[in-house]
């Protein structure tokens, strides 16, 4: 009886659909791609420059920068589309007492990098003595101005 149950369990394991499928993208390649996206593609107000260089050396003067794969901050309650859920890369940054994150859509979970990249927005925050203040940047070109404004308030 024990052998029969073991075999039945093994058969069920192979017959059940596996939800931990290997993604259709390589996370390291997706992040490398995001770092090199031309900021002019994300915001036509900006001059051509790779995103990582613009964040570090451009008007934002980001001091600390980390990249990670993200689900575009979605918690879908709908079946996965044929192309997959949206695939994004987040950049998490800090400059002085100001920190935040931004999101760039780069493709889908089933197809990897597809279509033109899209800037989804950024959040900028700073902590004062009694509260944390948040502001949004809807366009990439707004990010340096929001960072500078919050930096000025913390001095």
Question: Notable features of this structure?
Answer:
155 residues; alpha+beta; five-stranded antiparallel beta sheet; 5 helices; 5 strands
Encode the helix/strand succession as letters.
HHHHEEEEEH
Q: Number of folding domains?
A: 1
Largest sheet: 5 strands, antiparallel
Poorly predicted tracts of residues: 1-20
Distance between the termini: 74 Å
Largest sheet, spatial ordering of strands: 1-2-3-4-5
The helix content is 25-40%
Q: How does the overall form come out from the CA principal axes? A: globular
Q: Roughly how many Å is the radius of gyration? A: 21 Å
> Mean pLDDT, nearest integer?
87
Contiguous helical run count: 5
Residue fraction in strands: 25-35%
**Class of secondary structure makeup:** alpha+beta
Give the strand tally: 5
Question: Would you spell out the secondary-structure blueprint of this structure?
Answer:
Blueprint: H1 2-15, H2 27-36, H3 39-42, H4 51-57, E1 64-70, E2 86-95, E3 98-108, E4 112-127, E5 132-137, H5 143-153
Antiparallel strand pairs: 1-2, 2-3, 3-4, 4-5
